[in-house]
Amino acid sequence: MRGQSFSFQLAVWGLSLLLLHCSRPSPEVPSTDYAKTGGKFALGWSVSSLNNEFFVTMKQGIEDAAKEMGVRVLEANANADVAKQVADVEDLLQKGVAVMLITPQDSEAIVPAVKRCNDKGVPVVVVDIGAAGGKIAALIISDNYQGGRLAGEFIAGKVGPQGKVVHVQCQLGAANAQKRGQGFKDVMAEKGIAVVAEQPADSMKDKGMTVMENILQAEAKIDAVFCQNDNMALGALLAAKNAGRLKEMVIVGFDGNRDALESIRRGDLAGTVIQFPYDMGRTGVETAVKISRGEPVPAEVKVPVELVTAANLDRYREFKRRPAAPETVP
Length: 330
Known about the structure:
Rossmann fold, elongated, 45% helix
């Protein structure tokens, strides 16, 4: 009986240990529910490239807003590689992000990544240029069309209705740049100003220079040049300067990067339409947080842009936030 009793006790102990083990809580899985984590959830950010001052400044806005709101940001830099960016988004999804911020390299190429987020039920907030497909919870973008119009109105005021202008484009698949170009061309059409040449230079300074060199050889008279970004504008400016023709034309860019602002200060570049990537980054995080809380958000948030020339350059000392409006005397 003692042997049977001992065996029975062993069985009871074993069962107790088993029950104790089974009753222990499972290891906690980090929640991606904003309400359950007191504001600390993982936000993914897939960025096209950090080799551009624009996106470095956007990164600062994202990081500052995330710190203030208690949000963890998981970042992936695609280094201007569209295939890598799609893979980066998949990797961020595997890490369990609650909302995905995407700054696409290309509007078309990013579509599979957006659809993958859709399949996983992860809301997508696109910051800059937009996406050509998939379901987007919100788009944070500069008012590119209005920026193109600002550049067009400035140029029209400089050259008059008999002016001849050149339009240098970014890569043709960039939806934001297309809107800039459309705004500019609409003003040219309204003012009856001839666009004598229109070519892409893929957003790069060296290509902007090459494209402008070719146009200078083909066109004996050029009154103004609008480039869809500052890199190309600075390349075009160098070509015009090397050809000894800069004084006959005004050149306007788009972005408001430091080199462009300094060129305006020197009296070379006539103007640039400045964007505010810091504000765009902050707005992206704020929008993502609202989505995670179940709050409604606008389908599109247009961050205002402004024209910078020598006349107002002193207001734009920082390539970050929109400056406060100048005080008016009652």
